[in-house]
Design brief:
Structural class: mainly alpha
GO molecular function: methyltransferase activity
Pfam family, one: DNA_binding_1
Number of domains: 1
Number of helices: 4
Shape: globular
CATH class: Mainly Alpha
GO biological process, one term: DNA repair
Number of strands: 2
Organism: Halomonas heilongjiangensis
Largest sheet: 2 strands, parallel
Helix content: 25-40%
Strand content: under 5%
Keywords: DNA damage, Methyltransferase, Transferase
Distance between the termini: 25 Å
CATH architecture: Orthogonal Bundle
Order of helices and strands: HEHHEH
Strand order of the largest sheet: 1-2
Protein backbone atom coordinates (compact mmCIF):
# COMPACT_ATOMS: atom_id res chain seq x y z
CA UNK A 1 0.00 0.00 0.00
CA UNK A 2 1.24 3.47 -0.82
CA UNK A 3 2.39 5.49 2.16
CA UNK A 4 0.11 8.39 1.14
CA UNK A 5 -2.95 6.14 1.30
CA UNK A 6 -1.92 4.79 4.68
CA UNK A 7 -1.53 8.36 5.95
CA UNK A 8 -5.04 9.20 4.72
CA UNK A 9 -6.38 6.25 6.69
CA UNK A 10 -4.56 7.32 9.85
CA UNK A 11 -5.76 10.93 9.49
CA UNK A 12 -9.38 9.76 9.22
CA UNK A 13 -9.05 7.41 12.19
CA UNK A 14 -7.58 10.25 14.26
CA UNK A 15 -10.69 12.34 13.53
CA UNK A 16 -13.23 9.82 14.90
CA UNK A 17 -14.69 11.45 18.02
CA UNK A 18 -14.85 9.65 21.38
CA UNK A 19 -18.05 7.66 21.79
CA UNK A 20 -18.51 7.29 18.04
CA UNK A 21 -17.50 4.54 15.62
CA UNK A 22 -17.09 4.10 11.90
CA UNK A 23 -16.56 1.12 9.65
CA UNK A 24 -13.59 -0.12 7.67
CA UNK A 25 -15.64 0.55 4.54
CA UNK A 26 -16.59 4.02 5.71
CA UNK A 27 -12.95 4.93 6.12
CA UNK A 28 -12.08 3.36 2.76
CA UNK A 29 -14.75 5.49 1.07
CA UNK A 30 -13.12 8.65 2.45
CA UNK A 31 -9.74 7.84 0.91
CA UNK A 32 -8.31 7.99 -2.59
CA UNK A 33 -8.70 4.29 -3.31
CA UNK A 34 -8.36 2.18 -0.17
CA UNK A 35 -10.51 -0.90 0.35
CA UNK A 36 -11.91 -2.01 3.72
CA UNK A 37 -9.25 -4.73 3.86
CA UNK A 38 -6.54 -2.17 3.26
CA UNK A 39 -7.89 -0.13 6.17
CA UNK A 40 -7.71 -3.20 8.41
CA UNK A 41 -4.19 -3.94 7.24
CA UNK A 42 -3.08 -0.37 7.96
CA UNK A 43 -4.52 -0.56 11.47
CA UNK A 44 -2.74 -3.88 12.11
CA UNK A 45 0.56 -2.19 11.23
CA UNK A 46 0.21 0.54 13.84
CA UNK A 47 3.27 0.58 16.10
CA UNK A 48 2.95 0.24 19.87
CA UNK A 49 2.22 3.55 21.56
CA UNK A 50 0.75 5.17 18.43
CA UNK A 51 -2.16 6.91 20.17
CA UNK A 52 -4.68 6.53 17.34
CA UNK A 53 -8.22 5.49 18.33
CA UNK A 54 -8.15 2.24 16.35
CA UNK A 55 -10.83 0.84 18.64
CA UNK A 56 -13.43 3.12 17.03
CA UNK A 57 -13.29 1.19 13.74
CA UNK A 58 -15.79 -1.68 13.46
CA UNK A 59 -17.18 -3.98 10.78
CA UNK A 60 -20.05 -3.06 8.45
CA UNK A 61 -22.35 -5.26 10.53
CA UNK A 62 -21.71 -2.83 13.43
CA UNK A 63 -19.94 -5.62 15.30
CA UNK A 64 -16.34 -5.86 16.33
CA UNK A 65 -14.14 -7.63 13.82
CA UNK A 66 -12.78 -11.00 14.93
CA UNK A 67 -9.20 -10.24 15.98
CA UNK A 68 -6.92 -10.66 18.97
CA UNK A 69 -7.65 -7.19 20.31
CA UNK A 70 -11.45 -7.47 20.20
CA UNK A 71 -11.85 -7.69 24.00
CA UNK A 72 -9.66 -4.62 24.52
CA UNK A 73 -11.56 -2.84 21.76
CA UNK A 74 -14.89 -3.63 23.41
CA UNK A 75 -13.64 -2.43 26.80
CA UNK A 76 -12.33 0.84 25.32
CA UNK A 77 -15.62 1.51 23.53
CA UNK A 78 -17.66 0.77 26.65
CA UNK A 79 -15.44 3.19 28.59
CA UNK A 80 -16.42 5.84 26.00
CA UNK A 81 -20.12 5.14 26.53
CA UNK A 82 -20.67 2.91 23.51
CA UNK A 83 -23.18 0.15 24.27
CA UNK A 84 -23.67 -3.16 22.50
CA UNK A 85 -26.99 -4.90 21.92
CA UNK A 86 -27.59 -8.58 22.71
CA UNK A 87 -26.18 -9.50 19.28
CA UNK A 88 -22.99 -7.52 19.88
CA UNK A 89 -23.88 -4.65 17.57
CA UNK A 90 -23.23 -0.98 18.18
CA UNK A 91 -26.29 1.30 17.89
CA UNK A 92 -26.44 2.89 14.41
CA UNK A 93 -26.73 6.33 16.06
CA UNK A 94 -23.09 5.96 17.14
CA UNK A 95 -21.87 5.79 13.52
CA UNK A 96 -19.65 8.63 12.36
CA UNK A 97 -19.76 10.71 10.21
Amino acid sequence: MKRELEEQIYTIVAAIPPGRVTTYGGIAAMTDGATPRMVGAALRRLPDGHGLPWHRVISASRRLADHGGARTQRDLLIAEGVAFDVRGRVDAERLWP
